[in-house]
């Protein structure tokens, strides 16, 4: 009787586990498309903040290439860069970058670079910097990140003012703006070294990185 009871209970538990698995799988499949749609909308919003509609007429999310560069871009894994065009003419590239030397860890950002090599815009996507200090890199907290707009390798000293450069640091927090400033500079260097590959025909969907750390 005891063995029979154990067997019955085991079967019930197995049936319950199987039913739960089907429910979870069904829920996941039914919401997967909505999740993808939400992610796409969030990406589109960030890209459009850097290259707004009046500057391009292609689909930014669809015109992309895979890049995996740990030397200049600091990427931990392969990511997508996005290309903006107007009537098939190249306008800008939006390049992913990671500042690995943030005060409390990685700072992930995207850097828009115009065809002339100037910054179209920078947005921090994720970070764990100190609230009230390092988090001023977030546009929601301050407009500091807008100070990169229009800057290029040729016309800018890519250091914070404490180090003799052109960019403000934060009161009580120099490490964070220094890390972001250096990451933006390296994204510009990446663009300069790989511009031909970035804007090559769409069939070339993976960029084989060339590195050039210009001053």
From TrEMBL:
It is a single-pass membrane protein. Its main location: membrane. Residues 102-191 form the FMN-binding domain. Keywords: Cell inner membrane, Cell membrane, Electron transport, Flavoprotein, FMN, Membrane, Phosphoprotein, Signal, Translocase, Transmembrane, Transmembrane helix, Transport. GO terms for cellular component: plasma membrane. InterPro entries: FMN-bd, Ion_transpt_RnfG/RsxG. GO terms for molecular function: electron transfer activity; FMN binding. Belongs to the RnfG family. NCBIfam families: PRK01908.1, rnfG. This is Ion-translocating oxidoreductase complex subunit G. The lineage of its organism: Bacteria, Pseudomonadati, Pseudomonadota, Gammaproteobacteria, Cellvibrionales. The gene is rsxG.
């Amino acid at each position: 009787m005891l063995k029979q009871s154990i067997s019955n209970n085991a079967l019930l538990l197995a049936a319950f586990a199987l039913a739960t698995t089907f429910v979870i799988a069904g829920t996941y499949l039914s919401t997967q498309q909505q999740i993808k749609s939400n992610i796409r909308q969030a990406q589109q919003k960030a890209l459009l903040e850097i290259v707004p509609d009046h500057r391009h007429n292609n689909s930014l999310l669809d015109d992309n290439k895979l890049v995996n560069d740990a030397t200049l871009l600091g990427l931990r894994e392969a990511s997508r860069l996005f290309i903006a065009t107007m009537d098939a003419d190249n306008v800008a590239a939006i390049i992913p970058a990671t500042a690995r030397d943030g005060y409390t860890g990685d700072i992930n950002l995207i850097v828009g670079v115009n065809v002339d090599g100037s910054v179209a815009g920078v947005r921090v996507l994720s970070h764990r910097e100190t609230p009230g200090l390092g988090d001023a890199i977030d546009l929601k907290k301050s407009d500091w990140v807008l100070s990169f707009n229009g800057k290029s390798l040729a016309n800018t000293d890519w250091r914070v003012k404490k180090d003799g450069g052109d960019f403000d640091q934060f009161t009580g927090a120099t490490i964070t703006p220094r890390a972001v400033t250096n990451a933006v500079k390296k994204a510009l260097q990446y663009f300069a070294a790989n511009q031909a590959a970035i804007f090559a025909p769409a069939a070339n969907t993976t960029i084989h990185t060339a590195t050039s750390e210009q001053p």
